[in-house]
Amino acid sequence: MPTPYSVLSSELLGFGPEARVLIINCDDFGMYGAVNAAVVESIERGIASSCSLMVPCPGAAEAMRLLGRRQEIPFGIHLTLVRDTVNDRWRPLTTRERVPSLLDGTGELFTSDRISELLANAQVDEVACELRAQVTAVLDAGLAPTHLDWHCLADGGREDIFDATVALAHEYGLAVRVWLDPARRRMRQRGLPVVDNPFVDSFRLDIDTKAATYARLLRDLPVGLSEWAVHPGQAQAHVPGWQVRRTDYEFLTSPQARDLLDREGIVVTDYRALQRAWAGDVDLGSDWYT
């Protein structure tokens, strides 16, 4: 996915034309306590640069307390319309009566294996209502997010959901994680920074060769802006995808990871730089989504 533009997004952020710039964002912060502990350690002791908070999840209150005590940690909001398994009792923040199209037959959020049903049924005004509730909950806690992204829904899963999210981000002065075409092209046409290179989701990597794969990706990282969505977690079997999370956690906090970054001269950044660029686009919301 090479950028079609002569100026890389990394250059829009002030880096040189040969700079290799990487966001290492820990998704799923707030899912469970075992995830929270690993995310904080992956940032404070490891190579991760930021995280994304899931507000409807059972570990969210603890995660927000952790962020309140660690204001140096940049974080976004991992907008959550999907729960991982039937055992997860994640409900919308808005009342069920206001967002019926987002709920399955049990009154819960749809599970990840039923995303197609969610996207077929979801009414965009109800989506916007729930996303706003999640953003408001974070702001009401006195926290200052940098960006919005989605749990299990690449670029929101639907164009109108993406547009509603971009409008919400513009309203609150936030950036948005964008990594699929054509949304990436649309944002670049507005002069906004998005990833220049292929996006890495750690759930798509083989568990048994994870460390070697990460090492290769660092050695081969191209110039421009790249992003990894990693999912560190401590090894607890009740946490969905715990094997993926354990292997992420082990690599992110390893001496090997830090040594590779240093030897390769890779610049690790976070969404604060993108937020400044996105917040400066005063025309973004004028003709976007209403």
Automatic annotation (TrEMBL):
It comes from the Bacteria. CDD domains: YdjC_TTHB029_like (cd10802). The keyword Metal-binding applies. Keywords: Carbohydrate metabolism, Hydrolase, Magnesium, Metal-binding. Pfam families: YdjC (PF04794). The keyword Mitochondrion does not apply. Its cofactor is Mg(2+). This is ChbG/HpnK family deacetylase.
